[in-house]
Amino acid sequence: MKNVRTRFAPSPTGFVHIGSMHNVFFAHALAKANDGDFILRIEDTDRKRYVEGAVEELYAMLDEFGLTPDEGPREGGKYAPYIQSERMKSGIYKTAAEELVKKGNAYYCFLSSNELEELKKKPEYKNKAFRSPHRNLSKSEVEARILKGEKYVIRLKVPENEIVAVDDAILGHVEWNTDDIDDQVLIKSDGFPTYHLAVVIDDHVMNISHITRAYEWLPSTPKQMLLYKYLDYDVPIFAHGSLVLDPDGGKLSKRKGNVNTRQFLVEGYLVDAIKNFLMLLGWAAPIERIHGEKEREIFSHEEFINMYKLEDRQKTNAVFDRNKLLWFNQKYISTMNPEELEIVLENWLEKYAEIENELKDFVGRDNALPAKLELVKDRAKTLLEVVEGIQFFYKARKDINWKIKQVEKFAEKLSRIGEDVLEFHKSLDENSKEWAQEEWVEGMKKIAEKHGLKTGDPFMVLRIAIVGSPFSPPLFEALKILGKDEILRRLQNANYS
Ligand code: GLU
To answer: What is the position in ligand 1's atom list of the atom closest to the CA of 13?
Structure first.
């Protein structure tokens, strides 16, 4: 096999759609599984879609996900530049299009956008692949119009009633009739190439071996196959991966939930969990073949790359089940040891977390952080929930609401119970680390007996006074970390009304 070279060829639209991330993840794996190269090429010929800072955002996400390219605008490489608007300066796209005109596979079309719109309304143009009335203008008429300064585009001259086919590595044989294919614009009136022309030329020039992209690009393929043929290029291997659909059906769109890769990080999803989730969308892990295992869902990126083969990709659509992603995230958080989680959390606080700065500072310089993380990591589904779970250590809640069902049946005794809980904690050793759990439980039980309560009731009062909520990590462990002084302070300040 020739050197495997795959590419990610995004338009710089400003954010990285999670569906693109899914696709690029596979493109990268295919290259790496075969000791090949992974290339980033920016397809910015549609100037209307260009967004400032978009390339930086692409790099930020690729680096974060361990998908750093071997060649690209930042890395450089043999085929630089890797940004199409810069590549255009050498005239490669225009020259190729003119070459196609000469060969009779493309033509100048002088229709203005208004004329085009009007034309497309006519019955003879409806429900048919577009053919411009300028398809067969004579050479002299074309020259005369150009001389007059008329604006033009160059269109592909799609042949009548021919079969165009691709043998897709995932989908198998797919074919189209050229009568269903528009005379695609190749060079726009602003002189920029369209995506179709530029992508074919660049993939060829950059020696791309596999075009791995999402299924939604399949309709572009026949146009591109014609271009490969007319430009006399070898056809690379095409591999259109499954579409990732919203659970409600249809495209994964931002109307139904977040689709911005960065936003998943902001919300506290771990890169490893997202990657694990993405790899199982449209890929059947060949675990039996490799490990003799039957069921397994947790894979590291490295394991994935080591076992990745194009033939294990699935044709069926995949569903972006957000609950499953959350499941992976929780799994990854809970299986990390506290020291590993601390590193991940600090990275998150520094780069992505949108929480109060004060809290970021507290968490960021806390030697006792691993001990606190140990208490919450098994239940938190996101890093945000991790921080929410430990934030009471740093900030006492001032607005505790005592009018809740957990204490309502003994509401009138609340302040007396609180008083006794305070006195009891005053009596404990100065060094909270030395506290013995049995002694502490005994003391709290006595308070329950004294007030004719259930055993758990005084614990609930203590929990709410300390944490500010009826839910907390294991209370005794949390108290030991918080320390006697702070416990007493919170119990003293508790306003039980
Ligand atoms: N520039 C296209 C995009 O925005 C690339 C499609 C392809 O991979 O051919 O995704």
So the answer is: 4
